[in-house]
Amino acid sequence: MDYKNINDYEVLYMIRENSEDARDLIFEKYSPIIKSLASKYYLNNKDLGADYEDYHQEALIAFNRAVVTYDECRGTLFYTYAPAVINRHLVTFVRNLKMKKHHILNKSLRSNQVLNNFQEDTDIFINKLLEKELVNFMNTLDFECSNIFELRYNGFSYREISILLDVPITTIQSRINKIRRTLRRKFIKTI
What we know:
single chain, mainly alpha, Rna Polymerase Sigma Factor, Chain: A, Arc Repressor Mutant, subunit A, 2 domains, 8 helices, 0% strand
């Protein structure tokens, strides 16, 4: 979209009249500037423990403040006012990150990230192991039970399975109960 033809003052007026489209438009127009300032501060202060998303979020907050507090009567252009507000806000954000009282919090963010990565890796491993066990389990079932199990596992209701396989619902229910009992026995054995 060509933003050169968009008048900031008209858009700001529409925002004051509670136009969500105008708010989206001005955020979209200034998005490259917001991202540029956030990445500049992030690259200069990587060692403080905050991610790029933190800087970007702070820049968005500051830009929103600039939209709300801008006053045309002061004689400044919005194009110069908004980056100034964002810069001041990011300087304050960096200053707060550098303060000693936030040191423990900033370091704990890194350890939380390590724990989250470990948890994600563990979850992926467990899911792969469970999928392998389910495939092995399905291979032990007869053809009809295997089809019923696979359809139920993929979220089909009893009625849908009954229609797809042309089998009465009571048969579907009894087969699923049989599969559940077998799974419980197998699961309890492995524990």
